[in-house]
Write a structure and sequence with these properties.
Number of helices: 11
Pfam family, one: Rieske
Structural class: alpha+beta
CATH architecture of the largest domain: Alpha-Beta Complex
Strand content: 25-35%
Cofactor: Fe cation
Organism: Pseudooceanicola pacificus
Protein name: Rieske 2Fe-2S domain-containing protein
Keywords: 2Fe-2S, Iron, Iron-sulfur, Metal-binding, Oxidoreductase
Shape: globular
Helix content: 10-25%
Largest sheet: 8 strands, antiparallel
Distance between the termini: 7 Å
């Protein structure tokens, strides 16, 4: 790990005294690499959504901070994650999204794997016409599987394989949103989009956490769900965000609305919540739809946001879903200029990480505290 000279004690102070992460955490490629190891490779991170491989045999190659992965729904319908490499010479197996009709065949020497990861064929491995060799044991050379878990249709991965069970790590949020523990229906192609942001991924998390910016960045939302209608969501070391006591459902020209999730308590009639699950998943829940934003850190100054909207029923009105996606996309696009503006600001040498508003920045301070804690633990282990 590079010696960045970050004094994490100043970041982990009570919010009244704390300063934010210094510039290097947003601008330095070496720091970006160090955070990759400390924040993404030692616990549960968001990779994709299961709806992206909706049918058995569907395969989606993905880059996870430089690691080639393959998201796959096997013949039995189970979603699995493998390293996207052949066990022979490390060749990339799947280069484009596709349906695996038979086996996964390596394009280099035609070693073949089942959708469950088993090595099933090694042509000519023992010489021309000899498809076996005593030294090549198929049962020991299956695809390298990455530990995964699905919650709210998100495929969460533990690259280390050593994290505590997902249900244990995130028991608090699972319990908090138990009212929404119902099947989710992905809205389809119109309910999935990406945004490219010229900023460090952490700035997207920080902005999402807090409602402080609503009056100035989201005047449309603030017109009916005012700053004073919001409250903090704070779970140290796990997640943080905001909630609102005023949620207004979208309606179509004929007054049609999305169906609600079943058996919701009355509090959700007018409430909604938004939580950043550390490190890189941003979630929102409403009485009639939910969304997930998966942040893909591409570089220290570039992030791709993958957005997916979900509904309580698969037959939700298509035109209304399209309208809802346009509305949310417009809201998320409103955030881009401030996130990118903060990124440019991190090149100012006099900026010391900034101060937090004790009344308004609690969720963001918790995120900084989590980053600093993980980085400090990583440094201590070096």
């Amino acid at each position: 790990m590079p010696d960045t000279q970050t004094d994490f004690t100043t970041i982990r102070q009570p919010i009244e005294l704390a300063r934010g992460l210094p510039n290097a955490h947003y601008t330095d490629p070496a720091m970006h690499a160090a955070e990759r190891d400390a924040l993404f490779m030692t616990g549960w991170s968001g990779l994709a959504v299961a709806a992206q491989v909706s049918e058995p045999g569907d395969a989606l190659p993905l880059d996870f901070l430089g690691v080639p992965l393959l998201l796959l729904r096997d013949r039995q319908g189970q979603v699995r994650v493998f390293q996207n490499i052949c066990r022979h010479r490390g060749m990339i197996l799947v280069s484009e999204p596709r349906r695996i009709e038979g086996a996964i065949r390596c394009p280099y020497h035609s070693w073949c794997y089942g959708t469950d990861g088993r090595l099933v064929a090694t042509p000519h491995v023992g010489g021309p016409g000899q498809n076996a060799h005593d030294a090549i044991r198929k049962d020991e050379l299956g695809l390298i599987e990455v530990r995964s878990h699905i919650w709210r249709d998100i495929v969460w991965i533990d690259m280390s394989g050593r994290a505590a069970p997902f249900e244990e790590v995130h028991a608090g949020l699972i319990a908090r949103w138990a009212d929404f523990d119902a099947p989710l229906s992905h809205g389809g192609p119109d309910s999935s989009f990406t945004l490219e942001v010229a900023a460090n991924w952490k700035l997207a998390v920080e902005n999402y956490c807090e409602s402080y910016h609503l009056p100035w960045v989201h005047p449309g939302l603030n017109a009916y769900s005012r700053l004073e209608d919001h409250y903090h969501i704070e779970a140290q070391g796990q997640y943080s965000g905001q909630g609102t006591l005023v949620y207004r459902q979208i309606a179509g020209a004929a007054g049609q609305r999305f169906p609600d999730f079943p058996d919701l308590p009355a509090k959700w009639d007018t409430a909604a919540e938004y939580a950043a699950v550390y490190p890189n998943v941003l979630l929102g829940v409403h009485r009639d739809h939910t969304f997930a934003i998966l942040l893909q850190p591409v570089a220290q100054d570039r992030t791709i946001e993958h957005i997916h909207l979900y509904y309580a029923a698969p037959d939700a009105d298509e035109a209304l879903k399209a309208d809802n996606a346009r509305l949310w996309k417009a809201v998320f696009e409103e955030d881009i200029f401030v996130v990118e503006g903060m990124q440019r600001g991190r090149h100012a040498p006099g900026f010391d990480g900034g101060r937090f508003s004790p009344a308004m920045d609690g969720p963001t301070h918790l995120f900084h505290d989590w980053v600093a804690g993980r980085m400090d633990s990583r440094r201590a282990a070096e």
